[in-house]
Write a structure and sequence with these properties.
By secondary structure, this protein is an alpha+beta fold. It is about 50% helix and about 15% strand. Strands 1, 2, 3, 4, 5, 6, 7, 8, 9, 10, 11 and 12 form a 12-stranded mixed sheet that branches. Strand 8 and strand 9 form a beta hairpin. Helix 10 packs across helix 14 and helix 16 packs across helix 25. The chain is elongated and about 100 Å long.
């Protein structure tokens, strides 16, 4: 019973510290529970959605006239395969609305709920099929195309333009996310049959082959998807002739890519905040032992053991943690729903999530155990307190207790107020170390969060993720019209000079028995950035691979690989490593001449141009469209600036939102931490303040000294935090972004990137310390007499 009275008395006398710790723990709990809940719910929703669509473990997409029925029978007969389902579709690369054009491949399917059932973003159920002239789009295409229900979407069939009315948006878990270029759309069966009978080169009849692996194979402890798929391909050659393929696990990685990135960032921030809380607890415990030395001595003289006193302090922080956790869990109910809805446009999944209370509680319990253990260790100094010494001195020796104490007369060139600030900082350096560490950590992470915004800017994307720079793209589907390129160049050069011209296309190849994406270029001079190591391909037997592909193959510069395309195998030499985040970094760069060694019929339809004055791009595109109107079915001109802006819009909003949250939480943490430390410093220095007032210092002067002291510490912390960020940011970002194919994140430091976080932290510190120092008004000379 006595221990509870002691805890109640401690909480009552130190209610500011109690509330501060509770709020800090509430923030950590809220962020931790939110990110756990969103990640688990999205993962569960993906698995639930894809199970209803009857999608195979791997899906191969073939041109209809290249499907080999004997091959399908051979796949079906393999011991690892449960079944094979073949579903027809139509592909097109010319899909657009009145606002935007969708340049990636779109697959049109007849919606048959009995075979593949989808969930929809309305209340009309899953069995409602589109009527003739209607189309259902995956949710991610809504922002991508800037469309809504009732809008028209059109695509070129080669013999004319077909238009459909958008009537519903559906949940497409396989290839419907923002980060996946290909998209599946659903149309009426009669429209589908009519289009299948009249397809040409632009609009192609295709087949999707779904291969299902037996559950007993997948449930084996040593099961590896890649080995099973390699075995299927080596035995049947199914990979060699397909246009593209994707596994469920790959699709899941693409769909949940942004969630995984943000989860890593927020988890890192939560860990940092936990360190901050531990530093604050350490500071509070040390200050309490020093300032309440006499009280602890009295408790010991009355029979309280060291263990009992230590447990009372531990329980005090544990109760604060429990209160904070309950508040954090309550806040995470709203935060989980809010964040989950933001992922709808990125994942294309219907949000049905809620707070994952069980997993969140486990994380909170682990957090409690860590805090309790840390607090118990920090209270071991209580064992050194002697009742006799406590009664005789009232406290530990404080004044002139270390070598860092000195007389202020030695600094004759400084004003007295500045001398006192420096003396307080140097003499009590130990007390300010915790503040310094907190500011270093917050500055480091705030600048790191700011650096994430680089991913939303096109020029940074080009340098960090290997994106090819392009302002205008011209797609020519007919070889007979290729001579018109000369007129197109002339039209562009009438407005501005052309800085780059190249042709590129992506295609899948088998490399040493494993499928990788190949970026095919007609040349690399001036197109690619310099290779990270080695060089870019220059001859038809050379390739450059990414760091991710290098790690997966276990090969390096100077090694050779066997590349298979259309059943023809050739040996290629790895001459360099490059940056390219396509397919999560699993890709390589090869010259068109190299591909022609395996497949002489391989074509690149797109020609891309970079211009000196990008402000004239829109006018140039309009002029070209007017001049080439008679060839609109064979030549398509695209403004890449507009398309890049629409592509990055959602990602930019999410990253900016996360950055703002980190800024606000940093502000909140600074407010609480500075408030707690200021209060401790004020209580410790009341006698000093009384002395200063007795010799003529005004309240305003003392408040300024008090605030300036903390600002000085924070300023040093921001400088050290910036230095720490410069040393560690690229390494941390590369580790977090490796799984999406970014292996060389290069932070571009600007005055804005550094000054905004530093000024934010410094200004907040001064404001809060000045506000809290108003208690100095209550200090008077009479305190000296009372003491």
């Amino acid at each position: 019973m006595a221990i509870w009275k002691l805890i109640k008395a401690n909480i009552k006398s130190k209610k500011e510290s109690f509330i501060g710790i509770a709020i800090l723990v509430a923030i950590i709990t809220c962020m931790l529970a939110t990110i756990i809940s969103v990640t688990v719910c999205l993962d569960s929703q993906y698995d639930n959605a894809i199970s209803k669509t009857n999608t195979g473990d791997i899906v191969y997409i073939y041109n209809s006239d290249e499907v080999d029925n004997d091959m399908i029978k051979e796949i079906t007969s393999m011991n690892e395969v449960e079944k094979v389902i073949q579903i027809p579709c139509i592909s097109s690369r010319r899909v657009s609305t009145k606002l935007r054009e969708y340049r990636s491949m779109v697959f049109f399917f007849a919606y048959e709920p009995d075979k593949q059932m989808y969930q929809f973003f309305d209340d009309e159920g899953s069995k409602l099929v589109p009527r003739q002239g209607e189309i259902y789009l995956p949710k991610a295409m809504e922002k991508k195309l800037g469309c809504k229900i009732g809008d028209k979407i059109s695509f070129d069939t080669g013999y004319g333009e077909e238009s459909f009315t958008i009537t519903r948006f559906f949940e497409e878990p396989f290839i419907g996310a923002e980060m996946i270029g290909y998209k599946n759309v659903l149309i009426n069966q009669e429209d589908f049959n009519r289009l299948r009978e009249n397809t040409e080169e632009i609009c192609v009849n295709m087949e999707t082959i779904h291969v299902f692996i037996k559950d007993e194979i997948k449930n084996q402890a040593n099961y590896k998807e890649s080995k099973t798929l390699d075995k299927i391909n080596k035995q049947t050659g199914v990979q060699n002739g397909c246009v593209t393929s994707m596994t469920k696990s790959e699709a899941k990685s693409f769909t949940l890519m942004m969630d995984n990135i943000l989860s890593a960032i927020i988890s890192c921030f939560v860990f940092l905040l936990l360190i901050v809380v531990l530093i604050v607890i350490s500071h509070n415990v040390s200050s309490s032992i020093e300032m309440e030395y006499l009280s602890f001595g009295i408790l010991k003289s009355q029979g309280f053991t060291n263990g009992l006193i230590r447990i009372s302090l531990v329980l005090q922080y544990l109760i604060a943690g429990i209160v904070g956790s309950l508040l954090g869990l309550l806040g995470s109910v709203f935060a989980t729903n809010l964040l989950g809805k933001e992922f709808i446009s990125l994942t294309g999944l219907i949000w049905k999530g809620k707070l994952e209370l069980g997993l969140s509680m486990l994380a909170v319990i682990a957090l409690f155990l860590f805090i309790v253990l840390f607090t118990f260790i920090k209270t071991k100094k209580i064992a050194k307190i002697s009742p006799v010494q406590a009664f005789s001195l009232g406290h530990e020796p404080v004044y002139f207790k270390g070598r860092m104490d000195f007389y202020v007369d030695k600094m004759k060139h400084l004003p007295l107020s500045m001398k006192l600030v420096i003396k307080a900082l140097v003499s009590n350096a130990k007390e300010y170390i915790s503040t310094l560490l907190i500011i270093i950590l917050l500055t480091t992470f705030t600048i790191m969060a700011t650096s994430m915004n680089q991913l939303t800017k096109d020029e940074n994307l080009y340098s960090m993720v290997g994106t090819l720079d392009s302002h205008i793209t011209v797609r020519i589907t007919s070889d007979e019209l290729r001579p018109l390129l000369a007129d197109i160049r002339t039209t562009i050069e009438e407005e501005t000079s052309i800085t780059k011209e190249y042709s590129t296309n992506n295609a899948y190849f088998m490399v040493d028995g494993t499928q990788f994406l190949g970026r095919v270029l007609d040349h690399t001079d001036g197109v690619l950035q310099p290779a990270l190591e080695g060089k870019n391909p220059e001859y038809n037997n050379e390739i450059a691979i990414t760091e991710v592909m290098k790690d997966e193959l276990g090969k390096d510069i100077g090694d050779t690989v066997i590349i298979d395309n259309s059943g023809v195998q050739k040996e290629f030499l790895i001459v360099g490593t490059c940056k390219n985040m396509n397919d999560l970094g699993r890709n390589f760069t090869i010259l068109l001449e190299g591909v022609h060694k395996m497949n002489p019929e391989f074509k690149i339809m797109d020609v891309s141009f970079c211009v000196a004055d990008d402000s004239k791009v829109e006018g140039i595109v309009t002029t070209l469209e007017t001049k080439l109107r008679e060839y609109e079915n064979e030549i398509r001109v695209s403004n890449n600036q507009k398309e890049n802006d629409s592509t990055n819009e959602t990602i930019r909003m999410v990253i900016m939102g996360v950055t703002m949250v980190i800024y606000l939480i940093s502000l909140f943490f600074i407010a609480i931490v500075i408030g707690m430390i200021c209060r401790k410093a004020f209580l410790r220095e009341k006698i000093d303040l009384g002395i200063y007032k007795s010799v003529g210092f005004t309240t305003g002067s003392l408040r300024f000294q008090f605030s300036f002291r903390f600002v000085t510490v924070v300023l040093i912390g921001t400088v050290l935090g910036t230095i720490l960020n410069v040393l560690t940011n690229d390494v941390l970002m590369n580790n977090m972004l490796y799984n999406i194919g970014i292996t060389h994140f290069n932070t571009k430091y600007t005055v804005q990137n550094i000054l905004i976080p530093c000024l934010w932290i410094c200004s907040c510190t001064f404001a809060y310390s000045w506000l809290l120092s108003r208690k100095i008004k209550r200090v008077s000379c009479r305190m000296l007499i009372q003491e």
